[in-house]
């Protein structure tokens, strides 16, 4: 997507060369060395062709070409003092290069971003000052315009690169989704149906077959989650994970998990610790909620904040039980849940009463999701 920007530099170079030609022809009578002035203009014409050719190819556009562009442009700018009278330059007369001088600033903006563009603009502004020998309105206006142009193009390049990355991510995600759907159809027609049949027949037969049926049901639920949400999203970025994919395998016949339809992207460390805290809460349900208890996991995301709620319909507990357990050295909840979420800078709220189950609400904000700017 940067290719149109490079083409725009070529178009700008040609247009600004035409403006320089008009000024050269209009003012050559005032030149101290008219022949040298036309020779310098010839160099500008030649280099315009070279730079347009060079910037048209990804293989050629790079820092060596930009450095050469800056060198030739600087030489033409400095040569203005050999052609245009010093008094005219001090009073604000145009240099031979005029707007043509902005070419390397724009190229630096596309290749290196705003910082390189600003540095190049300041360098050329300093050369313009040395040519004129004094700070006048022309030096000030020219330098400010170079800075604004470089900063604007650098920002546009940053936005364009980010948009291209998002588009690439969307294409990869769409391809992965199509492949997942293809695999899911095959698995559904074979493995999942067999597991569902084993679960149903095992329940009907009872005894050891019932336990086998229960295990088959759990594996069916886990497999459905895997084929439904696949591995970590390709292209999501280094160290980023979809939290749904870490939680879905926890689905069993006694645990239901509800997540948003869209990916819940977190930093890998944050997502791993949050999923471990959820696993700890589910372990507590199995250990303390009583026989036949079921659990529900709800994932919500709003404005960069992720909330995961684990609720069960078990026997519940007295409000003071957690404090008593921690005082007695039993640190399951304190460490596996509260400790993990506290390390992430989040909060945990636990609500329960005897006979009313337990609700654990974990809330975190992932500060590792910001993308570095250019």
Automatic annotation (TrEMBL):
InterPro entries, per database record: DUF5931 (IPR045975), HATPase_C_sf (IPR036890), HATPase_dom (IPR003594), Sensor_HK_TwoCompSys (IPR050482)
Single annotated GO MF: kinase activity
Keyword Cell cycle in record: no
Key words, A-Z: Kinase, Membrane, Transferase, Transmembrane, Transmembrane helix, Two-component regulatory system
Transmembrane segments: 6-28, 35-56, 62-84, 96-118, 138-157
Gene Ontology process terms (BP): phosphorelay signal transduction system
Signal peptide boundaries: none
Domain of life: Bacteria
Keyword Phosphoprotein belongs to the record: no
Residue ranges occupied by any Histidine kinase/HSP90-like ATPase domain in the UniProt entry: 272-364
Domain DUF5931: 1-165
NCBIfam families, per the entry: HK_morpho_MacS
Protein's name in the database: Signal transduction histidine kinase
